[in-house]
Amino acid sequence: MTSDHAQPGNAGAEAIRILLVEDSVLLREGLARLFDEAGYTTVGAFADAVDIVERVRSASPDVVVMDVRLPPGFHDEGIRAALELRRAVPEVAVLVLSQYVETVYARELLADARGGVGYLLKDRVTSLAEFTDAVRRVRAGGTVLDPLVVKRLMATARDPLAGLTPRELEVLELIAEGHSNTGIAERLVIGTGAVEKHVSAIFAKLGLADSGSGNRRVLAVLAYLQRG
Amino acid sequence: MSIDGPAPAPWLSRYLASWTRVPGTSAYLLVSFVVSMVAISVLSSVFFAGLGMVILLIGLPLMSGSLLLAKGLGVAELGMLGWTGLPRIEAPVWPRTAADAHWTSRLLAPLRSGHHWSYLLHQMLINPIVSTVTFALTVTWWATALGGLTYWIWDVFLPEPNVDPWAEWLRNHVPLLGGFTASMAETVAYLVAGVVFGVTLPGVIGGLGRLRHAIAAAMLGRWPSDELAARAEAEAQARQSAVHAEDSAMRRLERDLHDGPQQRLVRLQMDLAATERRAAAGDTDQAAAYAREAQQQAKAALDELRALSRGVAPPLLADRGLVAALSALAEESPLRVGTDLDPALDAAVPPEVGRAVYFVVAELLTNAAKHSGASEATVSARVHGDDPARLRVTASDNGCGGAQFRDGHGLSGLRERLNGLRGTLAVESPPGGPTRIDVVVPLVAGVQPGQPPSLS
């Protein structure tokens, strides 16, 4: 379903500026290589999130790629830094990468409902196409959530989803991950018209108003899944 | 005893209540006297016979036998003391001889035990004296109370009315008895004595019982050194549990690592080597196919490692503490879970306790969701600040029960882990439900090996 031979980066169109915060040298190098391959410009690479707002202001990246466990405490410094960035420099998108995903963190990152934020497992980075897609979407103000987080949210949402057909559930998962109707159509290999039909059926069954923009849809679905 | 009208005054109800113990205590005071008389005669004959024959060596087993006999009689005494309704006296920790000890050392073991000698002293010397005195007083009080109160009935049946001189004196000197005959004065005096002894009967009998109880507690009960020994034993058991729990956890982790990620990485290495060979041979299609396979192996290895590290130390617990981790557990459960979490938990609970508690709750919720058919569960965790501070966690569901301890499995491993932390795990899960789990863990900061925590 994913093709790693997708045109890497379209370097000519625009060089996306990335600032990287990752404490492991091994992964920092790997990610820098990946950014290079994608045609991004790495404007800074740091091992911790100290003074992150100043650093971001002076380097003015488009996207900050942030690890969660960082020195000095190796707890959730990355999440806190990401939230700080959302408040201080909302125009910069933040993509949080982590070895594990927690629904609590996902909720905190999405709480301000402004989009431009993503939360992915580090594993996803191995696929260049998936990664560049995520960067493109958060940069455009969208929301990207790891499928694992979405699965967990879906697993805990009880009875409300009982009325959905398996196909609708699939579509709902993809909406929650942050995909547009076109993206969903590509992934499920069906027409956009069919996707639109599924989407309106889902929103009708869940009693949600379908607000057009991709980001609002994601937030509506998540708000729905997280309640109760 | 209850009469219509206002409730009796507190002193009165206390007094009436003290009568309830009179029959049992009296029976004890009377019966134990008989037993103690038998005890002294048997014990002294055996003991002194043994003492006299010590030189012939045969005396030693005889003395040892008398000590064992004293132990039996002492235990019987403790049993009879139960009739008094006073608090039970714990029997001491009897010294144990190793099962493989030589038979002579087992035979003579009582001679080296302080408790045995204390029992002998109690049964042969102290108890016969004290029980004689208490027996006499018991009989006196009962006899005077019963006899005095009923004298006026049976007085007339006495063969010849025989008026003691003291009655005559009483009649002449007590103004109230002025118009009475000497025999009437005697009847009144007996009645008064009967009333006085009857009223004081519960106090006297109770006091005698308490005296015997106190002596028995000192001589037949536990000594401070026993408490220390018991603590040391509990400590050793806790350590044993901790070691065992850790050992089995390590073994499981090793097995999981070996069966999962390790195999994956070996395979990954093989795939990468094959990719390299294909690429060197210029077969790019095959090389790409191998590389894709290699990626899948790496991804699977990562998934397995993530699951394993979650099982060792849940990330959220490490990042945010127990309150956040338990809330997330509750939230991620397919059940509706109500939580009541003390905000003081994070500061008060050390990480190892937090982990154990986390897994207990996780286990309950998983079990409830998978097997019990429950729809709801509650989790509460509180810190009790009394000395010593304790963490108490209760979790319950409304399912069909049947949670069990199976060796090396879920709950049983968790119980061991908690025991290692000197905590307890109680599970109540009758068929038909509901399941209730109650965890109590002492929160003792920095316990040193030579400094056991107080037992409570």
Extract low-pLDDT stretches of chain B: 446-456
Largest sheet properties of chain B: 5 strands, mixed
Beta-strand segment tally of chain B: 5
Tell me the Rg of chain B in angstroms.
37 Å
Distance between the terminal alpha carbons of chain A, to the nearest Å? 34 Å
Largest interface: A-B, 16 and 21 residues
**How much helicity do the residues of chain B have?**
55-70%
SS elements, strand count of chain A: 6
H-E order of chain A: EHEHEHEHEHEHHHHH
Percentage of β-strand residues of chain B? 5-15%
Question: In a few lines, what is going on in this structure?
Answer:
Chain A is built from 10 helices and 6 strands.
List the helices and strands and how they pair.
The complex is a heterodimer of chains A (228) and B (456).
Chain A: E1 17-21, H1 25-38, E2 41-46, H2 52-59, E3 63-67, H3 77-88, E4 93-98, H4 103-110, E5 117-121, H5 128-139, E6 143-145, H6 147-156, H7 166-177, H8 181-188, H9 192-206, H10 214-226
Parallel strand pairs in A: 1-2, 1-3, 3-4, 4-5, 5-6
Chain B: H1 10-18, H2 22-52, H3 59-81, H4 103-107, H5 114-154, H6 165-173, H7 182-220, H8 224-280, H9 284-312, H10 315-320, H11 322-332, E1 336-341, H12 345-348, H13 351-372, E2 376-384, E3 390-397, H14 410-420, E4 424-428, E5 436-442
Parallel strand pairs in B: 1-2
Antiparallel strand pairs in B: 2-3, 3-5, 4-5
Helix pairs in contact in B: 2-3, 2-5, 2-7, 3-5, 3-7, 5-7, 6-7, 8-9, 8-14, 11-13, 13-14
